[in-house]
Design a protein that fits this description.
heterodimer; A: mainly alpha; Helix Hairpins; B: mainly alpha; Four Helix Bundle (Hemerythrin (Met), subunit A); 2 domains
Chain lengths: ~100, ~160
Amino acid sequence: MIPIGWFFGLSVVLFVLGVIGFFVKRDLVTMFMSVEVMLNAANLAFIALAKAAGSPAGQVIVFFVITVAAAEAAVGLAIILLVFRQKKSIRAEDMNLMKG
Amino acid sequence: MGVFLFFLLAGSCVGGVLGMILSRNQAHSALFLVLAFTCLGGLFGLLDAPFIAAVQIIIYAGAIMVLFIFVIMMINLEKGIAPEKKRWTLVISAVLAAFLLAELSLAVRGTTGALGRTGGETIGSPNELGRLLFTDYLYPFEITSVLIIAALVGAIVLVKRREKE
């Protein structure tokens, strides 16, 4: 049987990879994908802890996280589309409307 | 068998995320991410969460990534965006990521041994999860529906083109 600590370690690695992706990539869509990776790393930690605690409550939380992520993806992608229509670009450094 | 499955799924999950980061093409990034999320669904299955595994594959690898691919199709950049040119930002992000990894590892190091192993009694059967959702977590469940309506309406209102006056 697999130690649950391994799943926890994998969750840490996935979260760090998501952070790296968010820093390194320069287009909004892939940065957004990196955020999804971080959300999924948190989900994996939740499920692993639910198994360790022997209670399905952690799985219910993950269910809610997935629902919120779906809503967030819909609104976030709509915003990205809107930004692309206005600026004809999705590079993060072109988003400088608020720059003084 | 279980350990082999874990390493197979974990390896392809991490590989998928790495492919997402390293690939120039956004459509390829999205497909790599589908691979990673599907493998994560398998890992959820290993952790005794069959319902969440199915939800992960249907909603994440299915619905959300289709949304991403649609947006990539509409944005339609012919060639991908080159990765960061400035060397120092890469160095700084690598250092920060290493610090974050060290910090998180330190934080979870003491706990991982105490977590036990998979197997044992079954938790999280769809029956049990459904009962929890409609009893203990009824209010969050209902509020989620409001959230989804709000997101739906918000997305439509945001993207709708204004009619020419």
